[in-house]
Design a protein that fits this description.
The structure holds two protein chains of two kinds. Chain A is an alpha/beta fold. Chain A is built from nine helices and 14 strands. In chain A, the strands form three sheets. Chain A has a five-stranded mixed beta barrel with strand order 1-2-3-5-4. By secondary structure, chain B is mainly α. Chain B has two helices and no strands. The relative contact order of chain B is 0.12. Classes of the chains: A alpha/beta, B mainly alpha. Chains A and B meet through helix 8 and strand 12 of A and helix 1 and helix 2 of B.
Chain lengths: 377, 68
């Protein structure tokens, strides 16, 4: 055997050995650099280089691993596995791509925003009304977060009886995007999904919140058949997921406020409405009541008129009757003369010697007829 | 078998007849007295009925007071 310790291998053996060594040394590594030579092949394969002042490295991956549209010159943070390809040489196989640095993050977000805007994903006409109040909420957030605590607290304080189904996800970092998309899909796949999906997280740096502006999360929110409410607690920019949501809120607490009414306000409203209803009914009835009162008065007046008329009539009759009272005539000096019990009007019924009875106002007397003296007419 | 209580109108009609009779020229004194007495009775009954009617009106007004 030659004393030389040199190892002789074939080309293929070298590639395998080299890759083995690389895999051992760098199972994966995150590299930051400026994007250049970016190209997409067959709408599926992605090729680009990252460079700095002194060096440049090739990267290879698939389209769905990108956070959104990219542009030459952007700073990217790419996690990947370094590999030596048997034909094409050295490259890093992409596992995850994120814009790096505020400028690039914003640039990437602007590019994605422009793309989705062109597709009409932000159109007002896509917005659906949220049920108010919903009976069941699908909540997607981190259970450990302050956002979760705030949301549940405000929700409970305002309204009761809302069922909250929760999927616990990470809201930042590499796995966040994947978990949030999966959670949205999981809720949507339920036979009886919640009435509204709520995606929340508290404030953070632009990099922390990048998940909520990725193409994957944004599209998953847009694709939800259940109406969505997204609230990312930051003040300056609005995340793209918020823009495509049916409704967005400024903070998790604000999301709870938008979802359900305050029971005290609701009660007040019911009372106000009830009062208003009474007033309207009262106003409507008043007219009729006035009318009825008038009718009532008319009725009474009519009855009283009839009564009055009858009384007057009766008094008049009484007077007339009084005038016809024979006793009144007697009191004036007239007399009634009866013969054999019958009032007589003529002397022809009498002869001298007949006994007649004469009635005066205060009594009667009997007398005998002495002589008949007919009145000459 | 008692007759139904005469209405105001019944009594009034009878009174009218009595008055008409009393104003006839050929009515005799005895008939006049009878009719006169009947007239007074009728007026008394009519007055009673009017008084009752007035009481009923007052009662009804109390039972259905104006709501306004």
């Amino acid at each position: 055997m030659p004393e030389s310790a040199e190892v002789e291998v074939t080309v293929s053996e070298f590639v395998a050995l080299f890759n083995q060594t690389l895999e051992y040394a760098y199972p994966n590594i995150t590299i930051i650099g400026e994007l250049t030579n970016f190209r997409v092949s067959k709408n599926r394969w992605v090729y680009f280089d990252l460079k700095d002042e002194d060096a440049s490295i090739k990267f290879f991956g698939v389209v769905y691993q990108l956070p959104g549209p990219l542009e030459e010159g952007m700073m990217l943070k790419v996690r990947g596995q370094p590999r030596l390809h048997s034909l094409y040489g050295f490259s890093v196989n992409i596992l995850n791509v994120q814009p790096a640095g505020e400028g690039s993050i914003r640039k990437a977000a602007d590019l994605l925003k422009a793309k989705l805007h062109k597709e009409g994903l932000f159109d007002e006409s896509r917005k659906r009304p949220l049920p108010y109040p919903p009976s069941r909420i699908g909540l997607i957030t981190s259970r450990q977060s302050a956002a979760y605590a705030d949301f549940v607290k405000v929700l409970g304080a305002r309204w009761s009886g809302v069922e909250v189904q929760m999927i616990d996800v990470q809201v930042q970092g590499e796995v966040a995007t994947e978990q949030i998309v999966a959670a949205l899909e999981q809720f949507n796949a339920l036979a009886d999904p919640p009435e509204v999906l709520v995606l929340i997280r508290g404030g953070g740096s632009q990099e922390d919140l990048a998940t909520f502006s990725t193409e994957q999360v944004t599209r998953a929110v847009a694709a939800s058949r259940v109406p969505t409410l997204v609230a990312i607690g930051h003040e300056i920019d609005v995340a793209l997921a918020e823009l495509v949501a049916d409704r967005h809120a400024s903070t998790p607490s604000n999301a709870a406020e938008l979802l359900v009414p305050d029971r005290r306000h609701a009660l007040q409203e019911v009372n106000d409405n009830s009062r208003l209803l009474s007033q309207l009914a009262e106003r409507g009835l008043r007219g009729h009541r006035v009318n009825l009162d008038q009718r009532r008065d008319e009725l009474l007046q009519s009855v009283q008129n009839t009564m009055q008329h009858s009384k007057i009539e009766l008094v008049n009759i009484q007077k007339l009757l009084e005038a016809l009272n024979p006793n009144a005539v007697l009191r004036r000096g007239y007399a009634i003369v009866r013969y054999e019990g019958e009032a007589i009007r003529s002397t022809k019924k009498l002869k001298p010697g007949d006994i007649v009875e004469t009635q005066l106002a205060d009594g009667r007397f009997k007398s005998e007829v002495d002589k008949l003296i007919p009145e000459k007419s | 078998m008692s007759k139904a209580k005469p209405t105001y109108q019944d009594l009034k009609s009878e009174l009218d007849t009595v008055l008409d009779d009393l104003q006839q020229d050929d009515i005799d004194v005895d008939q006049t007295l009878i009719k006169y007495k009947r007239g007074l009775e009728l007026i008394d009954q009519l007055s009673t009925q009017l008084k009752n009617a007035q009481n009923t009106i007052t009662e009804l007004q109390a039972k259905f007071p104006s709501k306004s």
